[in-house]
Amino acid sequence: MFSVDDHLLHLEGEALPRDVSAAQARALLAGGARCRAPVSGAVYGTLLNDRHALEALGDAVNAPPYKAPPRAPILYLKPRNTLAGHGARVVVPGAQGLQVGASLGVVIGRTATRVAARVALDYIAGYTLVADLSVPHDSVYRPSVRFRARDSFCVIGPTVLARKHVADADNLAIHVDIEGAAPFSANTATNVRKVAQLIADITDFMTLSPGDVITTGVRHGSPVAHEGARATISIEGWQSLAVEFIAPHTAQGATA
Fold first, then answer.
1. Domain Fumarylacetoacetase-like C-terminal spans what residues (predicted)?
2. Would you tell me how many other CB atoms lie within 10 Å of the CB of residue 89?
3. Which end of the chain has the smaller Cβ count within 10 Å, N or C?
4. pTM of the prediction?
5. Cα–Cα distance between 43 and 77 in angstroms, integer?
6. What are the tens digits of pLDDT across the range 35-49?
7. Contact partners, residue 224, CB within 8 Å, separation at least 6
């Protein structure tokens, strides 16, 4: 089992996450605390689960390699090296910057195999914010690992909220604020597959384990951050997730 009573927070330098109240989490983060990812299971991203992203493909969705709109979830893995927490400093590998794909993360609470949609929410321990980062690219179908799986390309947190705190995961406004760029807003209401159906469809062909995370998908038109910028990802009422973007030489100097 992976359980959350209130707000799960993993402070940097501590061996294990803490389960704290909202007020305690707010106080710790207000003091400038940096965090590790509050989860350590597998993280699965979902492609083309945003209605606007699917619509943007137009007639191309009926041409090779797609040949038709997706009939099942299209997943990709964010491997362990990508996991990072609140306050992460992420290297921007080139002048093109990094796409900041803000997504809702669904944290699985117990082993889920062939789960029916009507009971799927019972398998959720809680929810979290995910900054699913990638090098901007045109290929939606099987994008290169080097675009999505670089170090710290999956920033999670700062907390996992217990499921009881989220009344409707299918209607959450998500905001991305990047210094020097226009604010970006989206909503989980544009998901093609709602949370319960997404869990049902995924567990029809694979088992999800306690602590695993499913992202409900990157929003179409997600903004791009460049080195020197800071980004804040938020859902109203939740603790915000902060990411700093740095140049490769800055990272080398920090580790020297």
1. 43-241
2. 15
3. C
4. 0.93
5. 6
6. 999 999 999 999 989
7. 96, 97, 98, 99, 100, 136, 181
